[in-house]
Amino acid sequence: MGLDFIYIFKAIIIAIVEGLTEFVPVSSTGHMILVGSLIGFRTGAPGAEEFAKMFEVVIQLGAILAVVVLYWNKLWGAVVEFFTFIFTLGKKGEKGFKFGMNVLIGSIPALIVGLTLYDNIKDLFKPSAVVVGFIVGGILLIVIENRFRNKVSKRGNIATTDVFDITPIQALKVGLFQVLAMWPGMSRSASTIMGGWIAGLSTPVAAEFSFFLAVPAMIGSSAIDLFNYDFSQMNSTFIVALIVGFIVAFIISIVVMDMFVSYLKKKPMRIFAIYRVIAGIVLFALSLAGIVTLTI
């Protein structure tokens, strides 16, 4: 069987969408589902529906690799300190150990909910659920940013401005908000940054911690999808699509991450929230008019 270049091109489009949206608060999964539905990515070849579900999760590892590359020095230093703290019985490496424990603590809520409700969550991966997530998530983003971003606490404490100064309670609050991202269209980035604001993190630190929490979250979800996927359906087209998609998502994610962090240091995220609400309303209106179908 020869390569289906049209299907591979569709996979590249989905990978571009992933790279552009993974780390900004608009929901990469939601956009991949919507764009995939519009271009027929899930119906473009025999076995495409199951492959697309796996593909849309696994190429997010390309985006996660971008986190590792961009923050390599900080991550590697933290890993070294984490194990140094263990092997020296707490005499050295406290900062890295604290950081590692905070990432683990922040990952626990999503791990529990993801393993418990995996099938239910996968059933939500359809355009209609994405529209709800776009609108609800956009409204939440506006409300929480206005209420909590850059606010001084009643005790006069300023926001946490270093990711290594995050407390376990703050990490847990962010982790609890990450659970919201399991509804497609809500956005993992938006959910964790909102949790960071409520926990008292500055916006750049909330975004940075969001990136770090994405590593175990995406590795875990990708592992589950790969384990459950029927590889007997794989063919040369799917293999090429997966490899190319991974690479494209990685390259674009590196560029977008750097630009997004620079943006957050100067401007609010309201523009992303407005975009989400408008996009959700437009899609809903188009479905009522019979122009698009929000069920698959």
TrEMBL record:
Keywords: Antibiotic resistance, Cell membrane, Cell shape, Cell wall biogenesis/degradation, Hydrolase, Membrane, Peptidoglycan synthesis, Transmembrane, Transmembrane helix. It catalyses: di-trans,octa-cis-undecaprenyl diphosphate + H2O = di-trans,octa-cis-undecaprenyl phosphate + phosphate + H(+). It is an enzyme of class 3 (hydrolase). It is found in: Cell membrane. Its EC number is 3.6.1.27. It is a multi-pass membrane protein. The chain crosses the membrane at residues 12-39, 59-87, 99-118, 124-144, 196-219, 239-261, 273-294. It holds the Pfam family BacA. Bacitracin is thought to be involved in the inhibition of peptidoglycan synthesis by sequestering undecaprenyl diphosphate, thereby reducing the pool of lipid carrier available. Catalyzes the dephosphorylation of undecaprenyl diphosphate (UPP). Confers resistance to bacitracin. This is Undecaprenyl-diphosphatase.
